[in-house]
Design a protein that fits this description.
Number of helices of chain B: 6
Radius of gyration of chain B: 14 Å
CATH architecture of the largest domain in chain A: 2-Layer Sandwich
Radius of gyration of chain A: 23 Å
Distance between the termini of chain B: 43 Å
Strand content of chain B: under 5%
Number of strands of chain A: 23
Structural class of chain A: alpha+beta
Mean pLDDT of chain B: 78
Low-confidence stretches of chain B: 1-35
CATH architecture of chain B: Orthogonal Bundle
Helix content of chain A: 25-40%
Number of domains of chain B: 1
Distance between the termini of chain A: 31 Å
CATH superfamily of chain B: Cytochrome c-like domain
Largest sheet of chain B: none
Number of helices of chain A: 13
Order of helices and strands of chain B: HHHHHH
Shape of chain A: globular
Structural class of chain B: mainly alpha
Largest interface: A-B, 65 and 41 residues
Largest sheet of chain A: 10 strands, antiparallel
Strand content of chain A: 15-25%
Number of domains of chain A: 5
CATH class of chain B: Mainly Alpha
Shape of chain B: globular
Helix content of chain B: 40-55%
Oligomer: heterodimer
Low-confidence stretches of chain A: none
Chain lengths: 508, 125
C-alpha cells in the first residue's frame, strides 16, 4: 500500500480507518490495482517518475460522508484531491496534482436534486454527468435544454468549476457563469452555502446568484479552497428554433471586418449561438479564406428577423458572402438529428472522440492529447497575429519535426475573446511525450511574451501557466496563497491545483 | 513520490485492441444488490453504447473499423472473439483514448454482468 508524502503510516492508517467507518470499507481503495484506475490516461509523463499518481481513493456518497472524510484527513494531515466524475481528460483525468494525494472520488454523489421548469434551473451533485442530467430532464418531460460540452460524460459541476464551456446559446454555454448557488465542504468539515443558500430554509438559492455581502463563489472555481457538493445551474428553456448560417470571404484580411461584425452581433445579443471560425472551407464562390458559422436560437420569427439583420451586417463588407442555413424547429426529427452536431441542440454525446481518436485520417493515433488554449482578444488583427505567431514558431517549438501537433483552432466559447487551441497528441512513447512537453512548455513561454495565457491547463502544467500570471511579482498568486492558508491551514485540499500550494509545500 | 502500477497493463497490450469510450451512468450502488439483479445490457447501454453502437458518431466503432478494415466486426456486440475476461481487462485498463473505468463508475458486480453480456457470443479460440 502506498503512503502519502509527509504522512506517517500510523496517521494514514488512522485516516483509512475513519474513512472506512464513514463510507464503508468497500469504498476505500488502497490496493495497487484499484488505485491504478485513478491514473491520468492522458498524462504527458505516463510511466515516468514525474507522473502524478494517487496513493489511495475514498468515495463518499453523501455530503455527511464528505464531511467525515475531510475531517479525518484534516486531523491526520492527509492530502486529498477531490474529483467529480473523474473524466476531465487532458486536464489530469482522475489523478491528483500532488503525487501521493488521496483521491476524494465524488462519482457516487450522483443525484439530480431538483429541476425546476418554471424558473429554469437545476440543482445537482458532483457525480451527475451531462448524460445523467439530460436523461433526468428527458424522462421527466421537462421543456428545458442543458448545455453539454464536447464529451457528455463529464460532471456538470466539475466542468463548471474547471472553467469549461459548451455549444448552445450564451450565457448558458459559459458553465461557471451559468451557475447559481453552491454548497461547499471546507477543509475543517464545515458546510457553507453561498448566495441565497446562506439563508436557512432559503426559497431562492437557485434564483438569485449574488445573495448578500461579498460574493465568494469565484473562490471555488479552478481552486482548492473547498469541496463543492452541490451546485445550481440556470438552464435554457427549449428554444422554438435554431438557424445557423455561414459568412465567407476569400480574402485573408477580411477576417478583420468579419469579426467586428460578429462582435457587434454578439454584443447586441442578436447572435447568441456558439459561432465557429474556420480557416478555408468552401464558400458559395468556391474556396474561402474564412468561414464563420452564425447560429441563432429563439422563436422562429425572431430568429429569421435576427438572421436578416446579421446578413445585412456581414454583406455590408465588400466581398463577404452570406449563405442562410436551414432553420430547425425543435424538437428535431430523427432524420434531422442524424445530420446535425448534437451538442448544438443540447444533446450530450461522445462523438468528439471520433475526431480525436483513430479515424481514417489517423489510423495509428497516440491515444490521448492535451491542449494549449490561450485567450486572445476577439479581433481580426489579433487572430492574424496569432496565426503568424503559430506559423513562425512551429519549427522552433518542434525542432523542425512533424510531431502531429495541430492548430490553431479558433474557438469562440466566450464573448469578446478567441480561444486559440493547439492540440498535442499524448501516448505511451516516452520520447515522443518528452517532445510534446518541450513543445507545450515553449508555447506557454512564447505566448506569455505576447501577453497571451491559457484559461485552463493540463494538470502537470498548472504551475507553469500560473507562473505566467505574474503581474507585480505574482501578486495574484500571493493573494491566493494568503486565502489558502486562512481557509485550509493544514493544506489538505488539492495541493497545487491551478498553481496554489499550501504553505508547507511552497518552493519559496 | 508514490507510484502505482499494475501488471495487467502488460496483458492488455497482448490482447487485440479496442478503441472505446463510454457514457456515464447513475452509479448504481452495488452493495446489497444481488448480482443477478444487474443487467449487463443496461450497463452496456449506459457505459459502452455511446462509443460502440453502430453507425457514425461512435468513436469506438469508427476506431475498430479502421483497425480491422472489416475483417473483424467493428460493432462490439457483433464480436464473437471477446471473452468475458478480455472485456474486463479492457474496461479496467483502457486503451488508447479510452481511459479505464473506476469502480465508482462500474462496480465489480456490474463489470461481471457487462462482460458476460458483451461476450455472450464468445466462441473461444
Amino acid at each position: 500500500m502506498a503512503i502519502p508524502p509527509n504522512v506517517s503510516p500510523a496517521a494514514f492508517n488512522a485516516a483509512l480507518d475513519a474513512w472506512r467507518d464513514a463510507v464503508g470499507p468497500e469504498w476505500v481503495f488502497t490496493s495497487e490495482e484499484d488505485v491504478a484506475l485513478y491514473r491520468d490516461a492522458y498524462s504527458p509523463f505516463w510511466g515516468e517518475p514525474e507522473e502524478r499518481v494517487a496513493s489511495a481513493a475514498v468515495a463518499p456518497a453523501t455530503v455527511e460522508e464528505v464531511q467525515a472524510v475531510v475531517r479525518a484527513a484534516n486531523e491526520h494531515r492527509v492530502p486529498l484531491y477531490p474529483i467529480s466524475t473523474g473524466r476531465n481528460l487532458a486536464y489530469g483525468g482522475s489523478a491528483p496534482i500532488y503525487s501521493g494525494s488521496v483521491v476524494l472520488d465524488l462519482k457516487r454523489m450522483n443525484r439530480v436534486l431538483e429541476v425546476n421548469e418554471r424558473n429554469a434551473y437545476a440543482l445537482v451533485e458532483p457525480g451527475v454527468s451531462y448524460f445523467d442530467l439530460y436523461e433526468h430532464i428527458t424522462k421527466a418531460g421537462l421543456d428545458l435544454w442543458i448545455d453539454p460540452p464536447d464529451p457528455g460524460w463529464g460532471s456538470v459541476i466539475g466542468n463548471a468549476l474547471d472553467g469549461g464551456a459548451g455549444w448552445t446559446a450564451y450565457p448558458f454555454r459559459d458553465h461557471f457563469g451559468a451557475h447559481c448557488g453552491m454548497e461547499v465542504v471546507l477543509a475543517n468539515g464545515e458546510i457553507v452555502r453561498t448566495g441565497m443558500g446562506a439563508l436557512p430554509n432559503s426559497k431562492s438559492w437557485q434564483h438569485s446568484r449574488w445573495g448578500y455581502g461579498p460574493w465568494v463563489d469565484g473562490l471555488f472555481r479552478q481552486s482548492n479552497f473547498g469541496v463543492v457538493t452541490k451546485m445550481g445551474f440556470w438552464l435554457m428553456p427549449r428554444p422554438e428554433a435554431m438557424m445557423s448560417s455561414m459568412a465567407t470571404s476569400e480574402r485573408e484580411e477580411d477576417i478583420i471586418p468579419m469579426l467586428d461584425a460578429l462582435n457587434l452581433l454578439e454584443n447586441q445579443h442578436v447572435v447568441n449561438g456558439s459561432t465557429q471560425i474556420f480557416q478555408g472551407g468552401r464558400g458559395p464562390a468556391g474556396s474561402a479564406a474564412w468561414t464563420i458559422q452564425v447560429p441563432i436560437y429563439g422563436p422562429e420569427k425572431v430568429v429569421r428577423a435576427q438572421m436578416d439583420y446579421a446578413k445585412a451586417k456581414f454583406t455590408a463588407i465588400p466581398g463577404v458572402k452570406f449563405v442562410e442555413g436551414e432553420l430547425f424547429r425543435t424538437p428535431l426529427t430523427p432524420e434531422q438529428l442524424s445530420r446535425v452536431r448534437l451538442v448544438n441542440f443540447g444533446i450530450p454525446n461522445l462523438s468528439t472522440f471520433a475526431m480525436l481518436g483513430r479515424n481514417p485520417g489517423a489510423p495509428d493515433p497516440a491515444g490521448g492529447h492535451i491542449g494549449f488554449s490561450p485567450i486572445v482578444p476577439r479581433t481580426g488583427e489579433s487572430l492574424l497575429e496569432f496565426k503568424r505567431f503559430y506559423a513562425e514558431n512551429l519549427p522552433k517549438v518542434t525542432n523542425g519535426e512533424n510531431l502531429g501537433i495541430t492548430g490553431p483552432v479558433y474557438m469562440t466559447c466566450w464573448e469578446r475573446t478567441l480561444v486559440c487551441l493547439i492540440m498535442f497528441p499524448i501516448g505511451r512513447d516516452k520520447a515522443m511525450n518528452a517532445k510534446m512537453r518541450h513543445a507545450f512548455e515553449t508555447w506557454v513561454r512564447l505566448a506569455a511574451e505576447r501577453g497571451w495565457a491559457e484559461y485552463r491547463a493540463p494538470a502537470v502544467y498548472q504551475d507553469l501557466v500560473a507562473d505566467t500570471y505574474s503581474f507585480n511579482n505574482h501578486a495574484l498568486r500571493r493573494l491566493r496563497e494568503t486565502l489558502k492558508d486562512a481557509i485550509d491551514p493544514n493544506g489538505i485540499l488539492s495541493a497545487g491545483r491551478y498553481g496554489v500550494w499550501p504553505k508547507h509545500l511552497r518552493k519559496t | 513520490m508514490t507510484r502505482s502500477r499494475t501488471s495487467l497493463l502488460r496483458s492488455t497490450l497482448l490482447l487485440s485492441a479496442l478503441g472505446a469510450l463510454a457514457s456515464v451512468a447513475y452509479a448504481a450502488d452495488a452493495p446489497g444488490q444481488p448480482q443477478s439483479a444487474i443487467s449487463g445490457e443496461k450497463v452496456y447501454e449506459r457505459w459502452c453504447a455511446p462509443c460502440h453502437a453502430p453507425g457514425p458518431g461512435h468513436p469506438g466503432t469508427q476506431s475498430l473499423q479502421v483497425k480491422y478494415g472489416g475483417k473483424t466486426p467493428a460493432v462490439l456486440l457483433e464480436r464473437t472473439d471477446l471473452s468475458p475476461e478480455a472485456v474486463s481487462v479492457f474496461v479496467r485498463q483502457g486503451l488508447l483514448m479510452m481511459a479505464p473505468f473506476r469502480k465508482t463508475e462500474i462496480t465489480d458486480a456490474e463489470l461481471a454482468a457487462l462482460s458476460a453480456f458483451v461476450a455472450r457470443n464468445y466462441k473461444g479460440r
